[in-house]
Amino acid sequence: MGHIVLMDEPLSNKIAAGEVVERPASVVKELVENAIDAGGNSIEVRLEEAGLTSIRVTDNGKGMDAEDALLCFSRHATSKIGNEHDLFRIRTLGFRGEALASIAAVSKVDMKTSDGESGGCRIRIEGTRIIGQEPAAYRKGTDITVSQLFFNTPARLKYMKTIQTELGHSIDYMNRAALSHPGIAFRLIHNGQEHLRTSGSGNLLKVISDIYGAGTARKMLSFSGESADYEVSGYCALPDITRASKNYMTVLVNGRWVKSFAVTKAVIDAYHTYLPIGRYPIAVIDIKGDPYLTDVNVHPAKQQIRLSKEPELCALIRDAVRRAVAGSIGAPAAKPPK
Ligand code: ADP
Ligand code: MG
Q1: Which of 7, 80, 174, 186 shows a CA-CA span of 20 to 30 A to 163?
Q2: Is the CB of 61 under 6 A from ligand 1?
Q3: Rounded to an integer, what distance in angstroms lies between the CA atom of residue 48 and that of residue 314?
């Protein structure tokens, strides 16, 4: 008799969770991405103890009916791709159908949701075990609370850093979510204190002002450019305000915040000698292109990306930013937001 056995689903979910759910900010990211994909225009995140005690995300998106509300916690359950062809044309932030199953495997989840038609429902899960499932009145949208993260994986819990560090990761993610979706009103509250609030007006410069301050927003230059395959636009700061870290450059590809060494290098190169040594610009680089040019299925967290025709894209960005920066010397910056 052989030695190989197939794992049961709770065990494989717990293993997958190790990749998807690294820390509270990973949960915030997955839940907020689901809320964005659900298509609403208001997303509120409430954290207690940096999310280690609880993470609550409320959206006014399309919600789910009772059947989907249960199914969404199964591994590989997704409404976002149906076949192999779709994998190359992804327009949503999610598609792997793994996040909720992974989160539920390592925490206690309480979710209320309604599609606005079939009446709402409430589902409670503890480490993959369904402990409650009942009809519950709720408006259209979803309200999900994840508490006691890593309660059943003590090794992971021990690895958590200080509240400040964990909170910092969530704030950073929320800032980027707001920058990538100026049309959505975001709110982040930690232990009752508000850390981020955007209006959802659709104005990117206004979001930059909400996050980096009105003074910085007044020093932003707008840039744009177009090539055969890509369209780029965004804002970059006048070279007289710089930062000691590259973290103030946000690269967005079709609404997804990604980490791209090549794109950030193109932006830095565009400033050429205007940047003091060891200083970096503040910039938001919004890249649009056909999804078939971008492969996001590189890592479960989807922050790494493979871009086709990357040299063409980087040249486009370098030229657009360079034009804005060179043209600004002595000229006024972007119009300050209202
Ligand atoms: P993925 O986002 O990759 O599809 P998830 O595990 O994150 O996988 O979510 C599974 C499914 O649950 C989604 O495809 C979606 O249909 C549904 N879902 C999750 N969160 C929400 C939400 N906030 N509003 C509406 N539907 C949701
Ligand atoms: Mg998802």
Answers
A1: 186
A2: yes
A3: 41
Joined tokens for residue 274: 């205007």
Q: For the chain, which residues make up each domain, given as ranges?
A: 9-197, 213-328
* Probe target for ligand 1 pocket from 26, 30, 37, 92, with the most ligand atoms within 8 Å of CB: 37
Provide CATH code, domain 9-197. 3.30.565.10
Please choose, from the candidates 280, 306, 304, the residue with its C-alpha nearest in 3D space to the C-alpha of residue 293.
Answer: 306
Closest residue by CA, ligand 1 atom 16: 79
Query: Which residue CA neighbors atom 7 of ligand 1 most closely?
Result: 99
The alpha carbon of 310 and the centre of ligand 2 are apart by a number of angstroms equal to 27
Answer whether 126's CB lies under 8 Å from 108's CB.
yes
Pick the CATH number of 213-328 from 3.50.50.60, 3.30.230.10, 3.30.1850.10, 3.40.50.2000: 3.30.230.10
pLDDT value of residue 314: 97
Q: Summarize pLDDT for 168-190 with one digit per residue, the tens.
A: 999 999 999 999 999 999 999 99
